[in-house]
Design brief:
Chain A is of the alpha/beta class. Chain A is 25% helix and 34% strand. Chain A folds into 2 domains: 246 residues, Rossmann fold (3-Layer(aba) Sandwich); 106 residues, Coagulation Factor XIII, Chain A, domain 1 (Distorted Sandwich). Chain A is built from 8 helices and 17 strands. Chain A has a 6-stranded mixed sheet with strand order 5-6-7-3-8-9, sandwiched between helices. A 5-stranded mixed sheet of chain A has the order 11-17-16-13-14, with helices on one face. Chain B is mainly α. Chain B has one domain. In chain B, helix 7 runs antiparallel to helix 10. Chains A and B meet through helix 1 and helix 3 of A and helix 2 and helix 5 of B.
Chain lengths: 395, 269
């Protein structure tokens, strides 16, 4: 199936990119001389991208996902022309505006206004174009009173706002966005999302590199999953997001469940938890196993929370259940949670143990396991599954 | 690097923006500000003048020696600044190069242009000295313009080469410093050529085929005094072309090497 050439925005053919990484810490002429004399190469070759081919059509919102080190950024930089390609071909149809980072070229010693013009020039805008956009940029960033101040007197949030305001004014045929969502507070992220919605409505071609599966599902029309420099999957956002989540869980469930922050506990020897399944459907129940061993005689209370997208969506504890406080013995607790209240998605579990009377936290473990609730119900989103009853009244 | 693209509108805007930024930032926070770009060569001049004119009497037999000396110092400072700015330009803008794709030569040119602006400011000082010293102005003084352009081209060629080399091997800066020091004494900046006449015409010829020496002497000749011995007074016509040959060679080499390596700056930085 061949497409007419003008419908393709970006075409990547057999792209392979490798880097030479110097083996020594010093990369001076002296080292080069020594290496030449000794006949050593002095570097090793690292290939973050291996024979990548894909096409992005005009008007597509294309997501690129993958674990850290899978080659996402290298791919984006190769498309943006920052890296030179030795093998393969990348063709871009139209002007391309890359946002590998917000506020490229920002200088702390310059004023906000000067930085706007400098950043604009780097993105390829003329002074008159920037002058025309300037008020809009300042309005959007809500920084009217600060434009004549030097950037070093800005808070980091203000800097991000200014940088982002410039970015959203950039009118290119193709936008490359790398992890833009990673910065800023919730309100700012909402602004990003609003901006993406707008881009989608305008049918602009966007390439988004992200770790947020929520963003992929919400905005992308198709997506690509990279694994160790190879394409693992190109498909619908749902397929790619699900595959990414499953891959991630398999990796993270292998690691030991030591708590991220150790509490020096005088009460407890051991607290461990695990879940029985990784993939569940809404009819099944999740079984959480929890083991603890006490050092002192206290009345224990176990808590757990279910995490989705970094936020606790449900918290449960054993306050109504009497738990054994016998010393030196392994106590096992089992907890079963039906999944019928969950929408499809990725969840993880944290556990904690308290003194029942005082609610003093004595130990906890983060991310004892993750699970996916499977399913594909187009009529729902979010975390909670609510039974609904739709009626239509035609007057 | 297509020739038509080099000074496309987009690149010109970027170049101007970078030069203006460089210039604004250069002396930011210093009490005397831009005055420093005049004061630096003036101080050097004052030291050299006291040591070499007053103590060692090197200037005997050269008309207007103080201005003669100042002109040499200003031109040499320009050469040093241009090449050194170029040397560090790519590394200094590393963050930028890794995040955005734009023609890299703009960075080198922008660095050297701020040195060029400095030269213009310094030349204003030179002219004040010329007037004070009672040098008779002549139309031939206009030849200074093509001579300065020649020096700029030579310095820029070296700047391109060094910028690319330094990105790959970070110790180039130290090497260049040493070479510059040697070149400072190999170039007739302090000593008038009359002082080395005793070594024979050949020796003077060797000194004058280096582009900076040729240019500095020519500038002095057209601007200040006929006492400045130039390459065309010493060597046959054919040999006077050697400095130009050197400049063309360096330009080709510098641009070729820069072009070849600039593709990989984003990875090397």
């Amino acid at each position: 199936m061949s497409k007419p050439q003008d419908e393709i925005a970006i075409k990547v053919e057999h792209l392979t990119k490798s880097f030479k990484i110097p083996l020594e810490s010093s990369n001076g002429l002296k080292q080069k001389l020594i290496n030449t004399i000794k006949g050593r190469k002095g570097y090793r070759t690292f290939t973050p991208l291996n024979d990548i081919s894909f096409e992005i059509k005009k008007g597509e919102f294309f997501g690129i996902v993958g674990r850290n080190g899978s080659g996402k950024s290298t791919l984006l930089k190769s498309i943006a022309g920052i890296y030179t390609i030795e093998s393969g071909k990348v063709s871009v149809n139209g002007t391309l505006v890359p946002f590998i980072e917000l506020g490229v070229g920002f200088n702390a010693e310059l004023t906000g206004r000067e930085n706007v013009y400098l950043n604009g020039a780097l993105l390829g805008f003329s002074n008159s174009e920037m002058a025309a956009m300037y008020d809009e940029i300042v309005d959007f960033a809500e920084l009217h009173d600060f434009m004549e101040e030097r950037l070093k007197n800005y808070s980091s949030g203000m800097q991000v706002r200014l940088a982002f305001s410039i970015a959203i004014r950039a009118k290119g045929d193709v936008l490359l966005l790398d992890e833009v969502l990673a910065v800023g507070d919730a309100a700012f992220q909402q602004k990003c999302y609003d901006y993406f919605e707008e881009l989608k409505r305008e049918n602009r071609t966007i390439v988004l590199v992200t770790h947020s599966m929520e963003a992929v599902k919400r905005f992308c029309s198709s997506a690509l999953l990279l694994e160790n420099g190879n394409i693992k999957l190109i498909g619908t956002p749902e397929e790619v997001a699900d595959q990414y989540i499953v891959d991630n869980i398999q990796k993270s469930n292998k690691k030991t469940t030591n708590s991220d922050a150790e509490i020096e506990s005088k009460y407890i020897d051991l607290l461990e938890g695990s879940i029985d399944k990784v993939e569940l459907n809404r009819e099944q129940s999740l079984l959480l196993n929890l083991t603890y061993k006490l050092k002192k005689e206290i009345n224990p209370m176990v808590g757990m929370s279910i995490i989705s997208a970094g936020r606790s969506i449900a918290e449960l504890n054993s306050i109504k259940t009497g738990l054994s406080s016998e010393l030196g013995k392994m106590h096992k607790v089992e907890m079963s949670i039906p999944m019928n209240m969950f929408n499809p998605g990725l969840y993880s579990v944290n556990i904690s143990i308290f003194k029942k009377e005082t609610r003093e936290l004595i130990d906890y473990k983060l991310d004892v396991g993750s699970f996916v609730v499977e399913g594909n119900d187009q009529s729902r989103g979010g975390v909670i599954y609510l039974p609904t009853n739709w009626k239509q009244h035609n007057d | 690097m297509k020739l038509a693209n080099i000074f496309s509108r987009k690149n010109r805007i970027l170049l101007r923006e970078l030069v203006v930024t460089d210039f604004k930032l250069r002396y930011q926070g210093s009490a005397l500000g831009y005055l420093w770009s005049v004061l630096k060569p003036l101080f050097l001049f004052a030291i050299l003048y006291v040591v070499f004119d007053k103590f060692l009497k090197l200037g005997k037999g050269v008309e207007h020696y103080p201005v003669y000396l100042l002109t040499g110092v200003v031109l040499w400072s320009f050469f040093v600044e241009t090449t050194s700015q170029g040397l560090n330009s790519i590394i200094k803008r590393g963050g930028l190069i890794k995040k955005i794709n734009f023609p890299k030569y703009i960075i080198v040119i922008s660095g050297t242009l701020s040195a060029f602006i400095n030269l213009l400011i310094n030349f204003a000082v030179v002219f004040v000295f010329i007037l004070f010293n009672g040098v008779e102005p002549s139309w031939s003084a206009l030849l200074v313009i093509p001579l300065v352009v020649e020096l700029y081209i030579f310095a820029l060629a070296i700047a391109f080469f060094l910028a690319a080399l330094n990105t790959k091997y970070r110790d180039v800066g130290y090497l260049w410093e040493i070479l510059l020091q040697a070149a400072f004494y190999a170039t007739p900046i302090i000593y008038p050529m009359q002082r080395v006449l005793g070594e024979g015409k050949d020796f003077i010829g060797y000194i004058l085929v280096s582009p900076p020496a040729q240019i500095i002497q020519d500038v002095r000749h057209v601007l200040i005094t006929d006492d400045a011995i130039t390459i065309w007074q010493i060597l046959p016509l054919g040999a006077t072309l050697i400095p130009f040959g050197v400049i063309i060679l360096f330009s080709l080499l510098g641009v070729y090497y820069f072009k070849k390596n600039s593709k990989y700056f984003a990875e090397q930085l």
